[in-house]
Amino acid sequence: MNMPVNVPTDDPNADTEWNDILRKHGIIPEKPPSPTPIIEEAIANAREHAHQNRLENKDLDQLDELEDDEDAEFLEQYRKKRMAELSTISRTSVFNQVYPIQKPDYSRDVTDASTHAFVLVHLTSSLGANTESRILTELWRELARKFGDIKFCEMKADMCIEGYPDKNTPTILVYHDGDIKRQVVTLRELAGTKSGIKDLEKLLIDIGALKGNDSRLSHSALPAENSSLTGRKAMPPSSTAEDDDDDEWA
Predict the structure, then answer these.
(1) Would you state the pLDDT for residue 247?
(2) Residue 23 CA to its chain's centroid (Å)
(3) Residue 117: which of 136, 96, 133, 132 has the closest Cα?
């Protein structure tokens, strides 16, 4: 009867003649490939990408200042690209205000409108003591002025969804392509009462309403790979919650 033999090894990954013999006879596994070339290639690719996109967040004035430092043809390509982006923004910026919504008009002003642009609805508190709701109301106005190609709406939560608990306000409903895509319940998923424009801009990037290199952003921000803003499906405004307790909305 063959019994397994325990062969002493100091380090099975070491490059030694003894380990080569053991690998040849299948006693120890083959040495895994070194990650160094892969890491070096990834770093090189990242540097190349950063170099090729070094002008992404520059506005037209900043591009003009680089005339002596950049290749003229390369700079002109970016200038034309930026002008085209600004033209698109100007053409699609048709909202530029917060729209109060009534329940009978919800389908037309929100669901149907979202087939042409992103529509975000702020379900506000029905009580005056909700600090987060008041904060979001002010931020909503600033966002609407800044990003006129996105429709920002506002509606009292209990008028939108009967029985919706006030503790879950403010709630942000994101609509696009005629359907609800995201629900953010309270500002806890952002920065609570410290939430600001930059936090909401990150949300707009995360949902795809803005690109990370949009020149209107307060700062350069790319979508996080592991975003904490998890999507939650909301009840449509025609639904009621008379038979549901608050746990349904927690």
Answers:
(1) 45
(2) 48
(3) 96
User: Quick one: DSSP state of residue 219?
Assistant: S
Residue 235's CB is within 10 A of a number of other CB atoms, namely: 18
Name 47's Cβ contacts closer than 8 Å, sequence gap at least 6: none
Of residues 227, 189, 192, 193, the one with CA closest to residue 207: 227
- HSE on the CB side for 140, CA within 13 Å? 26
Beta strands in the chain (DSSP E): 98-100, 119-124, 151-156, 171-176, 179-185
Sheet containing strand 179-185, edge to edge, reads 98-100, 151-156, 119-124, 171-176, 179-185
pLDDT score recorded for residue 228 = 42
pLDDT tens digits, one per residue of 168-220? 999 999 999 999 999 999 999 999 999 999 999 999 999 999 888 787 887 54
Taking only the tens place, the pLDDT of each residue in 88-116 is 666 666 788 999 999 999 999 999 999 99
Is the torsion defined by CA of 81, 86, 90, 96 positive or negative?
positive
